[in-house]
Amino acid sequence: MIRKGTYVLFLRFDKPAEAEVGSLGHISLEAGTYCYVGSAMNGLDQRVSRHLSHKKKKRWHIDFLTTICSEMTAYEHEGDALTECSLADHLQSMGGAPVMKGFGCSDCGCQTHLFRVDEERTRKALEGLGMTVFADRRAQANN
Q1: Which end of the chain has the lower number of beta carbons within 10 A, N or C?
Q2: According to the model, what pLDDT value does residue 14 have?
Q3: Which among 54, 10, 40 is positioned nearest to 137, based on CA atoms?
Q4: Given its phi and psi angles, is residue 30 left (phi above 0), alpha (psi -120 to 50 degrees) or beta?
Q5: What is the edge-to-edge ordering of all strands in the sheet holding 32-40?
Q6: Which pLDDT score is estimated for 137?
């Protein structure tokens, strides 16, 4: 069964990092925790599992960061009740600092889909929205 939904990736950087992010150019990140919001309306498990892999062909803006971060986790929300844009608005309204204009949002009107966040506060807020820690159901189905 192919699931659809939205997700939030937590990316932790133990030390400052720099990357060239495709057409967006150079990005410098301080050590800390960042969140990226996205949607997968044609395969939530496949998309998030791909993001959580360090080794992949760089296809999306977020790929340039997931290949160099120290640690990643993901939260998910199945269905279409929460949009990626509403999640981006929510992260910013609770103090998430926008990182790079245009990051991950070339197909919408948002400023960005990447934010520097307070990890504990953000996790609690996402859980309050009904989001849960991602568990790849493809792997579970094979057991």
Answers
A1: C
A2: 97
A3: 40
A4: beta
A5: 97-98, 114-116, 32-40, 5-13, 71-78, 132-133
A6: 62
The 10 Å Cβ neighbour count of residue 123 is 19
**pLDDT value at 140 more than 70:** no
CA distance 100 to 122: 19
Write down the mean pLDDT value for the chain: 91
Please report, for the chain, the start and end positions of each structural domain, with discontinuous segments joined by +: 5-141
* pTM listed for this prediction: 0.92
Mind listing the pLDDT tens digit for each residue in 15-30?
Answer: 999 999 988 999 999 9
Given a contact cutoff of 8 angstroms between Cβ atoms, the answer to whether 23 and 112 are in contact is: no
Q: Where are the strands (E) in 14-116, listed by range?
A: 17-21, 25-29, 32-40, 71-78, 97-98, 114-116
For residue 11, what are the CA distances in angstroms to 43, 93, 139?
21, 19, 22
